[in-house]
């Protein structure tokens, strides 16, 4: 698994990425007032998606919740969400600076069709912030490829959502299916997107990744 560093745009193996960030991030240092940032990795153990975020340590779990929602999760409306450590729910007001490096949190979004994430606090960084980039997405998994269930060849671009018999369609098979008919399309199929929320609850993708 490889990913691109979104600061320097070089490509790294996932297991070398955090070490790379340790040298890449400090190169952003400028003169003047420095700010503490925390490096956070969010992972979907169920589907294998992962992403790295650099966030000022004065931000709260509530802010992290919003970052995760915008990046991966926002679907039909505002679902409930929560962070936990060893099954104990945490206050959304907790600041990220309160978590030691190597802290591990569990996160749940939507308590009925739940998307679970593991949140790890990896490192602290101190440097001059760029006001345009108060929190940064530093890297994420490459999109996974799914194969069409009809022709077993084409790269899937649409799927029938969870709960309605999941299946993937390539562009050709999709256009030829009843789902490709305008009357059905919007209601029965969802786009293949790079998110653990794919195929659930009308999720159509993140603006960050387009
Ligand atoms: Zn880099
Ligand atoms: Zn929803
Ligand atoms: Zn096909």
Question: What can be said about this structure in brief?
Answer:
Helix content is 18%, strand content 30%.
Overview of this structure, please?
There is one protein chain. With 210 residues, the protein is an alpha+beta fold. The chain has 2 domains: 2-140; 156-192, no CATH class. Helix content is 18%, strand content 30%. The chain has 4 helices and 12 strands, in the order E-E-H-E-E-H-E-E-E-E-E-E-E-H-H-E. The chain has helices spanning 14-24, 61-73, 171-176, 182-188, and strands spanning 2-4, 11-13, 35-43, 50-56, 81-85, 88-89, 104-109, 115-127, 136-140, 156-160, 167-170, 190-191. Strands 6-5-7-8-3-4-9 form a 7-stranded antiparallel β-sheet. Strands 11-10-12 form a 3-stranded antiparallel β-sheet. The radius of gyration is 19 Å and the shape is globular. One zinc ion (ZN) binds at residues 148, 150-151, 154, 170, 172-173.
Query: How does the helix and strand content classify structurally?
Result: alpha+beta
| Number of extended strands | 12
Helix content: 10-25%
Main beta-sheet strand count, sense and barrel state: 7 strands, antiparallel
């Amino acid at each position: 698994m490889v990913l691109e560093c979104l600061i320097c745009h070089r490509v790294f193996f996932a297991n070398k990425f955090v070490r790379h960030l340790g040298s890449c991030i400090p190169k952003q240092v400028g003169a003047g007032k420095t700010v503490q940032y925390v490096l956070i990795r969010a992972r979907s153990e169920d589907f294998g998606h992962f992403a790295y975020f650099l966030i000022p340590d004065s931000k709260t779990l509530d802010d992290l919740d919003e970052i995760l929602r915008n990046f991966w999760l926002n679907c039909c409306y505002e679902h409930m969400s929560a962070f936990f450590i060893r099954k104990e729910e945490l206050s959304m007001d907790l600041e990220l600076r309160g978590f030691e490096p190597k802290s591990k949190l569990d996160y749940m979004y939507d308590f009925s069709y739940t998307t679970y994430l593991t949140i790890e606090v990896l490192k602290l960084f101190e440097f001059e912030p760029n006001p345009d980039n108060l929190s940064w997405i530093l890297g994420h998994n490459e999109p996974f490829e799914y194969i069409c269930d009809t022709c077993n060849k084409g790269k899937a671009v649409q799927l029938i959502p969870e709960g309605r018999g999941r299946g993937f369609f390539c562009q050709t098979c999709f256009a030829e299916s009843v789902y490709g008919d305008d009357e059905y399309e919007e209601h029965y199929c969802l786009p293949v997107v790079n998110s653990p929320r794919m195929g659930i609850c009308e999720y159509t993708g993140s603006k960050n990744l387009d």
